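Appendix B. Raw example, untouched.
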Amino acid sequence: MTRAGGPRRRTCASAGCPLADAEREVIGATHAELGAYLLGIWGLPFPVVEAVAYHQTPARVTQARFDLLAVLAVAHALACEHAPQPLECTAAAPPALDEDYLRRLQAGLTWDEARARVESARKEYA
């Protein structure tokens, strides 16, 4: 099975456009929107649907605590720091995901600590 987008996706990568733009151009929706839609149809709880829908744009949701959306958004941003293909993450690490974001939501760790945990896991599972 080939991945959606093919040549258009590679063209978008070389042009540096955000993944969401490429997805909308090729399939009419983003992977986050499609995933959230399917999860909703399948009856998963709203916090799961919301986390999938907004994992790349958590600032679009009012958050008061370090919830499932925040965990997924932070994990996504951290994974993007190690992504082999920049296109996969061109829209992934919004400026709102910084030290203040973690502190405001009382995450209980700093970006440096989160990065160290990712690096530790990479070494352990390499």
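End of appendix B.
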